[in-house]
């Protein structure tokens, strides 16, 4: 079973120089429960259907499939609300930091994520990391759709 091991952090935006180019992401959820979700995502010129299971924010099963763009567009129409963000990728020591700059109702929120090969993998924190929020469910995209950052 494919496993996604991911840690999330808030950043010190005054210390972070983002790359010039990012990828625009639009995503919505067809359904979501505390321990499973079905996400539709358009990422640039690609589109994906993703099933996530598990309620551990650090480590969850993830099944992701590329789907035709037209299917993704039609499925996004079925979603009650959507998240829009731009993702920037910063390589560091054979790992990749994904920096999500949120828009819309989540404007002002910037989250850094790093995918790891194990829950105990060691990695270096860049100077622009503020604090870890992996175990704070309000920072999960599936929660940000229901309770946007602008309403905290």
Characterization of the model:
- The protein has two helices and nine strands, in the order βββββαββββα.
- It has helices at residues 69-77, 141-146, and strands spanning 3-11, 23-33, 36-43, 46-53, 59-66, 82-92, 95-102, 110-116, 129-132.
- Strands 1-5-4-3-2-6-7-8 form an eight-stranded antiparallel β-barrel.
- The longest helix has 9 residues, at 69-77.
- The mean pLDDT is 96.
User: Structural class of the helix and strand makeup?
Assistant: mainly beta
Largest sheet properties: 8 strands, antiparallel, barrel
The topology string of helices and strands comes to: EEEEEHEEEEH
The proportion of strand residues reads over 45%
Helix content: under 10%
In terms of per-residue confidence, which ranges show pLDDT below 50 for 5 or more consecutive residues?
A: none
> What's the N-to-C terminus distance?
35 Å
Number of DSSP-assigned strands = 9
Number of helices: 2
In angstroms, what is the radius of gyration?
Answer: 15 Å
Give the overall average pLDDT: 96
Strand order of the largest sheet: 1-5-4-3-2-6-7-8
General shape: globular
């Amino acid at each position: 079973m494919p496993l996604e091991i991911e840690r999330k952090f808030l950043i010190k935006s005054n210390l972070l120089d983002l790359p010039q180019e990012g990828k625009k992401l639009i995503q919505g959820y067809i359904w979501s429960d505390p321990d499973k979700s079905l996400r539709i995502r358009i990422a640039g010129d690609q589109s994906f259907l993703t099933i996530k299971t598990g309620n551990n924010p650090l480590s969850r099963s993830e099944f992701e499939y590329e789907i035709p763009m037209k299917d993704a567009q039609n499925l996004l129409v079925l979603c009650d609300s959507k998240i829009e963000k731009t993702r920037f990728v910063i390589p560091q020591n054979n790992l990749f930091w994904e920096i999500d700059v949120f828009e819309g109702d989540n404007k002002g929120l910037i989250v850094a994520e790093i995918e790891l090969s194990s829950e105990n993998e060691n990695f270096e924190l860049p100077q622009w990391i503020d604090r870890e929020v992996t175990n704070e469910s309000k920072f999960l995209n599936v929660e940000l759709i229901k309770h946007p950052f602008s309403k905290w």
